[in-house]
Design a protein that fits this description.
Layout lengths: L6 H19 L23 E6 L8 E7 L2 E7 L12 H4 L1 H5 L9 E3 L5 E3 L2 H13 L4 H4 L2 E5 L4 H13 L4 E4 L6 H11 L4 E4 L6 E5 L10 H12 L8 E5 L5 H4 L3 E3 L6 H14 L8 H11 L4 H8 L3 H13 L3 E5 L9 H14 L7 E7 L7 H12 L5 E5 L3 H4 L6 H5 L4 E4 L13 E2 L10 E6 L2 E5 L12 H12 L1 H5 L6 H13 L7 H11 L1 E2 L11 H7 L22 E7 L12 H5 L13 E3 L1 H7 L5 E6 L4 E8 L7 E6 L35 E13 L19 E3 L36 E6 L8 H10 L6 H5 L8 E8 L5 E7 L18 E3 L5 E3 L9 H5 L6 E2 L26 E2 L5 H13 L12 H5 L5 E5 L6 H6 L17 E4 L1 E3 L2
Parallel strand pairs: 6-7, 6-14, 9-10, 9-12, 10-11, 14-15, 15-16, 20-24, 21-23, 26-36, 27-35
Antiparallel strand pairs: 1-2, 2-3, 4-5, 4-16, 8-13, 17-18, 18-19, 20-25, 22-23, 22-25, 27-34, 28-29, 30-31, 32-33
Helix pairs in contact: 4-18, 6-18, 7-14, 10-11, 10-12, 10-13, 10-14, 12-13
Amino acid sequence: MTDSLNRRNFLKLVGLSGVASTVGCGTPPSRKLISLVMPSEEIVPGEAIWYATTCRECLSGCGMRVRTREGRVTKVEGNPEHPISQGGLCIRGQASLQGLYNPDRIQSPFRRNANGTIEPLGWAEAESQLADRLSALENTADRNKIVFLSGHNGDTLDRLIRQWMTALHSEHYLIYEPFSLVTIKEANRIAFGRAEVPDYSIAEADYLLSFGADFLETWLSPVGFSRGFAAIRNYREDRRGKIVQVEPRLSLTGANADEWVSLQPGTEMWIALAMARYIVTEGLSVELPPAEIRRLGILLEPYSSNRASSVTQVPEETIERLATEFAGASAGLAIGGGVAVTGDNATATQVAINLLNHVTGRVGQTIRFDRSFQVPDTAGLSALRGLVDSINRGEVEVLFIHHTNPIFNLPPDLGFSAALQKVPLVVSFSSFSDETTDLAHLVLPDHTPLEQWGDFRPAAGVHSLMQPAMNPVFDTRSTGDVLLELAKQMGGDVAEAFQVQTFQDYLKDAWKQTYGEVAGEDFENFWQESLLRGGIWPSRSSGMESQSVDRRARVGLLPQIFDFPFPPAPTKGPAEFFLHAYPSSRYYDGRGANKPWLHEIPDPITNVVWDSWVEVHPETARQLNVVEGDLLHVESAVGHVEAPVYIYEGVRPDTVAIPIGLGHESYGRYAKDRGSNPSVLLPVAADPLSGTQVWSGSKVKISKTGRRSELVRTDGSRTDLDRGFSRIIPLSALTATAVPSEEVHHQEPEHESLSMYPPHDHKDYRWGMAINLSSCTGCGACVAACYAENNVPVVGKELIARGRHMAWIRIERYMENVSATPDIRFSPMMCQQCDNAPCEPVCPVYATMHSSDGLNVQVYNRCVGTRYCSNNCPYKVRTFNWFDYQFPEPLHLQLNPDVSVRSKGIMEKCTFCIQRIREGKDHAKDEGRLVRDGEVVPACAQSCPTQAIVFGNLLDPNSTVSKLADQQHGYRVLEELNTKPAITYLPRIKRI
């Protein structure tokens, strides 16, 4: 090879020829082109249209904004105006896009004949047949054999279903949610006479004591509580709050706590009662009537610290120290009721927590009944057992099932599956063929939440709206519209009960009642403004805060509480283990298992993808002689499962833990036959006071199978190995007189770093980030947002095992210490946009280059796939396309048209969402100015529920990111290499 054509020049030519061939050939022309001859006035090609709606992936009801392009949804984000989400959105909310475009959705109505064959139906025929069948049930007695079983609906749809069932003369409308909050409502009824779920003001607390409530994962309102968590964890007014997690298995919430109290499963009640007793007997309680103090002393007398220690296996001095700290806090808060600690004493445990909050004066301070969460009265296990008994007695002729999957979630011994096959007509409104829908005779598929009208009331005074952001993807129909059409076709009294034609009209009529509370405005204007905003809700300055003192005086203990019979402690045999079934932060109760993003993004604690597992303590693993990946046989009195072992110091030696959500036998290609379902191990047991299902505390035996099933994990090592990637700083180091330690504070070099490359000239912008590790919980919402915004492909378990994970941002999890004071660190890692980027000088075709804004950009058309840049990157944040990854129809509709879909053979990486930067710069240029601080927000920063990621212009001294980057305790990863990253990390503040 001559000097004129050396290796480097040859690769340049290859890169340029690739560009030429791409431009010359292009893609094959479409066979049919459809132009918008008369486009909607709203649609401007290339411009996004945003709609406000409500997320329905769990019971939180977060406000959401939906971005559409040319009539299709391409991204969902949190609504910054909504009081619940405040702009944040969890990983499941981000993945709701894949529910809309899921390739395994039911696309049109069908019926299943006697031999199980599916026969497609048109909507007119399906509704006509069903109306005729319902009309055939002439008398009231027969119509009372109609049952409607549904998940938690919005207010107006719930009202319609109740009105529709009343018109049919049926009284059997049941709401079933696997993760019920009825225990909290029942405990508050017992203790305070208020069957409500109050607002827990986590943001206002300075001492949070959680009895198994995974408020960062699935409990009540994780996005809203995450913002409160950040307020506790961050340094404010020369102090930082404390979080204590009491649970047998260290959850993600516990990993973010300052202290973990590990106790025997099912004994949380004893800790709360012992703390309350110590506070009362030591005179640490708030001022209470003498008669009440005397009766509390009698009630709590059996629960001494010594006895509680023997039951829970928590040291006596720990119980008394926690009691002293909690009573001495200026704004303490004790919470409970998480699914993972829902045993047969769940309500009693919550009553004990109520007593603890009462004696320390928290009711009315950090526990607010004047702004309660709106939680329906759901059917517990007892009610569902009654339904099964009714079916077996032949008392059910028609069963409607709407957005719930009891066969998957209920214990098999309840017999729901067998009973369902005895019902003459089962009608499902499910959008997916799950385990329950597979047994339905008639399926009338509903729209997904992003395609339909509705509303939701997550909290008192918060009325959220849902509106369709696009036309239906398939031939589906809103359940509300189906019920109204059935009523119309049945005629008579049923038809007369409804005066509207569509559910949208029904919704608007319902909101006219809400409008009656808003004076001085035309309803149509009010309706349009509510749609634009996403609903109506009062501001915090509306006078609600002033009610706290009066409300505290009105909420007191009922006299009956002093005779409350607390149950005894649980026991187990010598060869048995406690089963701890806990909800997955990704799959929830299993409804998220059909979304590939949720499989591909690693579990925050284990870093496992596309699988479930059995967590055992290292001591237990040694006894069984198993290593990670060995298959364990887990057997209870009612069932058994097999799953690979994950060895975890964060679970007690007497306990095995299994995540809930996987193990589906149906539910589409992404969920079917993947993982194990711990529900098959659960007995048909309910909490005697609330009737809710018992999820934790069952007894199991475990044994080695001698076979293996490798777990695929994305973490390179469990610890930081003292490399300083994720650092901590003691609280004392933030005071004016303290001297930071060398471990946590960047030491300035003794001499100026030299570079063989000239410095880059950044005229107006140098984009950068500041990431607050004290606020980061490791939830993965930023990763899901990046997948959605940047068309990151899903590759599957097998390719991830070969190191071909395509995520542009990853959450590094380091388990430095798993003990009573856990040190588990989470650190988002993406391209650092180095000013001295090691990747740039080694690229032979200049595919990776430095922009004038300080970004390390990737020119895909130049890249020839040498991977030199990846080899030279010390942060390992570049991914290589080994294949042309597929997006099965209609999943390809989720793709963002502002971002190219990369082909095989090229590198890709984070570019701080350069498409958003360009859009912001274009708008600023049109107005003759620079981009304002906060005007451009990358997808990861926008979604973060705790606002741990801040983005902006480092050249603007007044920008938030610039001020954070200049903080003394901030550091940059591997800055000793003189790469000059644009991302500053603020170390996690350790409360010492």
